[in-house]
Design goal:
Layout: H1 8-21, H2 44-48, H3 52-66, H4 70-79, H5 86-102, H6 105-121, E1 123-125, E2 131-133, H7 137-158, H8 165-181, H9 191-200, H10 209-219, H11 226-242, H12 245-250, H13 257-278
Antiparallel strand pairs: 1-2
């Protein structure tokens, strides 16, 4: 684990961010980067997943996208505690991403095996009587696609607008390794494949009443603390701004051009502040 910065303001910011992403009550500590991780240092997946602000925006956007798939939505409604513990769900997802990206490969494999075991228990029936299962490769493919495109899009918008095409393709190629271990199929290995999959899978999506209700809950400020309550609408607005137009429409959301400007400006400022606090730099 990296040492805390000496500057008191930077140190306070780092501590607050780490507290958000680690369950101190259960003894969780930040994931220490390993030289024997699934992915080598300074490769696209480790660079993209390193920016806290972009990953928060991308994570919310991905969750909104995922809720458009009826099977993924029903699995969340029937088997998840997101309504009472949305922060916990996002924190666990963030930790899984961190472990599989930066942790020792043995720890990454354990985390993947744990998720696969959870997926085997998530099954049921849609309101119309169709059975669903979290082990369905096509559903897992949508979940992965939503995450991969959202994380990368947020990174390109808020961190590295000039990210080369080859680096973007390699990001999908690397992230596909985790998706395959989770039994997702098909899995894109380039940006072009990902964009084509997004178009091809739209026929499986449904902007249902439940999907819209869940989206509204995801975007509703919750929790205590003035800072958290101020930051949540900013991140939520940035996440909606990142969504493809069809998803905004299907979820019954609004994306106003004028309001997007201060949202982007605020998110840029947050990202710059957190990179300063953690001592990281934007890679152009």
């Amino acid at each position: 684990m990296a040492a805390e910065p000496q500057h008191p303001i930077r140190r306070a910011i780092v501590r607050n961010v780490r507290a958000v992403f680690n369950d101190s009550a259960s003894g969780e500590q930040p994931v220490a980067p390993s030289d024997d991780a699934l992915f080598a240092p300074d490769t696209p997946i480790r660079i993209v997943h390193a920016d806290v602000t972009a990953m928060m925006v991308g994570g919310i956007s991905a969750l909104l996208l995922q809720m458009l798939h009826p099977h993924a939505l029903r699995g969340v409604l029937d088997h998840s505690t997101f309504r009472s513990d949305l922060h916990g769900r996002l924190r666990r997802t963030a930790r899984f991403i961190a472990v599989t990206t930066y942790g020792h490969r043995d720890e990454a494999e354990k985390a993947i095996a744990k998720v696969n075991a959870i997926h085997r228990r998530v099954q049921g029936t849609l309101p119309g009587g169709t059975p669903y299962s979290a082990t369905d490769p096509s559903v897992l493919a949508w979940v992965h696609l939503a995450e991969a495109t959202s994380f990368l899009d947020a990174h390109v918008r808020y961190v590295r607008p000039a990210m080369p095409r080859r680096a973007r393709d390699l990001y999908f190629e690397q992230f596909a390794e985790v998706a395959r271990r989770l039994h997702a199929d098909p899995v894109p290995t380039s940006e072009a494949e990902a964009r084509a999959m997004m178009r091809d899978m739209r026929g499986q999506l449904d902007g249902s009443h439940d999907a819209r209700a869940v989206a509204a809950e995801i975007l509703s400020p919750r929790g205590r603390g003035g800072t958290a309550m101020a930051v949540q609408p900013l991140l939520g607005g940035a996440a909606v701004d990142l969504l493809p137009p069809f998803a905004v429409s299907m979820l019954g959301l609004r994306r106003r051009t004028l309001s997007a400007l201060p949202v982007r400006a605020g998110t840029f400022a947050m990202g710059k502040t957190l990179r300063w606090a953690f001592g990281s730099q934007r890679r152009d």
